[in-house]
Design a protein that fits this description.
alpha/beta, two-stranded parallel ribbon, 5 helices, globular, disordered N terminus, transmembrane helix
């Protein structure tokens, strides 16, 4: 009850207790009683259900959601109703695909899906509006060329996946807005990346961005 009153007052809910019995019920009761939340962070909970409760999607003002290190396998179909969401972190869960619901979130800036079980990136990725997408430490072996169509994507992290160099779309280098591409720890040597057509264009974007923030 103390957590609930604090969340109602400041619009921020932190759940710090890990592995408590019936944790998902506690979480649902929290969000049922609070409708003005701006941030939710659940740290090392390990007790949320495989699918998030629909009640979460009623939080129309939610801007930041962090549910790292849980057992989530998918997002509810109504997740796209979180129209104010800007930052989403679902690292260390059990997602096996890029959630298509993310494509309808027009204010989403940063998405962290690292340490999941995602194996491929589908064509729908081209509809994402994010600036930064973290897919490190998944099982990705295929990426749709549509990822180059993301209008705002600047940072793409694909470290420690299962990518062959031939499966990395060259349009990421030549035709995208991406200015930071992290692909270390895949099934090719980084020096081979430098030999691909379009690498010079990528380096121009990378250098320009680096100078901008120097």
């Amino acid at each position: 009850m103390q957590y609930l009153k604090m969340a109602q007052h400041v619009g921020v809910l932190y759940v710090l207790t890990g592995g408590i019995s019936g944790g998902h019920i506690v979480f649902i009761n929290f969000i049922k009683g609070v409708f003005q939340l701006y941030q939710i962070q659940v740290f090392n909970f390990f007790s949320l259900p495989a699918v998030l409760p629909d009640e979460l999607c009623n939080l129309k003002k939610l801007e930041m959601l962090s549910l790292n290190n849980n057992h989530l396998r998918e997002l509810p179909s109504t997740f796209g109703q979180l129209s104010a969401l800007k930052t989403l972190s679902l690292s260390g869960n059990q997602l096996r695909a890029l959630p298509p619901q993310l494509c309808s979130l027009r204010h989403l800036d940063v998405v962290d899906l690292s340490k999941n079980q995602i194996r491929s990136i589908p064509d729908t990725v081209g509809e994402l509006q994010v600036i930064e997408l973290n897919l490190n430490q998944n099982q990705i072996s295929q990426i749709s060329v549509k990822i180059s169509c993301c209008p705002r994507l600047k940072v793409l992290r694909l470290e420690e996946n299962c990518l062959e160099l031939s499966m990395l779309p060259q349009s990421i280098l030549s035709d995208s807005q991406i200015c930071l591409l992290a692909v270390e720890g895949n099934l090719f040597e980084i020096k081979k990346l430098r030999e691909l057509e379009g690498y010079d264009k990528y380096m121009e974007r990378f250098t320009a961005t680096k100078k901008k923030f120097a």
